[in-house]
Specification:
- It contains 8 helices and no strands.
- It is an all-alpha fold.
- Helix 3 runs antiparallel to helix 4, helix 3 crosses helix 5 and helix 4 crosses helix 5.
């Protein structure tokens, strides 16, 4: 409401916020933790979030400058959210930067993995990305199928739709 009344006094929403919200919504879907048997822990939830985020970043690489700008905005939003979440968990300033850098590095490793994996073995990439190299076959197959479905939607979406957070 305040943005309507005082448009110049309220900050504009972050450019990557809509897409990050869509990525987060995908990562929060219950099937990951039920059928996919991903541990419903902070670490398990992060692995799903980082994997979906990595798929989106790989998809944006094919969009040229517009994709690069959206990737930067999405990554900046990820950093902002991770910083805020970890502050709420009680991680203080002396270690917070190192922790967030570690999380960004974890996403970067997943981007490297998924660059080639989207054209090859989804099950093995899923096992590495979501299950840290472990995971029951049925659970891995479920999650690999879900990730492949997300990839198909990402691949078919244009940059404008992605910027608006439309990856459904």
């Amino acid at each position: 409401m305040l943005s309507f009344l005082f448009p110049r006094l309220t900050p504009a929403p972050h450019k990557g916020a809509l897409l990050f919200d869509a990525v987060t919504a995908k990562a929060r879907e219950p099937h990951w933790y039920i059928e996919g048997e991903v541990p419903d822990t902070i670490d398990g939830r992060f692995r799903v979030l980082a994997t979906v985020l990595a798929l989106v970043l790989v998809r944006l690489e094919g969009e040229g400058e517009a994709g690069d700008a959206l990737s930067v905005a999405l990554t900046e939003r990820f950093i902002e959210v991770m910083d805020a979440e970890h502050r709420e968990l009680g991680i203080g300033d002396p270690t917070l930067g190192k922790t967030v850098r570690k999380l960004v590095g974890s996403v970067a490793r997943r981007v490297e993995l998924w660059r080639s994996a989207v054209h090859s073995d989804w099950n093995e990439a899923t096992r590495q990305s979501v299950y840290a190299g472990e995971g029951a076959s049925g659970a891995v197959e479920h999650s690999a199928g879900s990730l492949k479905a997300i990839w198909t939607k990402l691949r078919d979406a244009d940059a404008a739709a992605l910027a608006e957070g439309r990856i459904q």
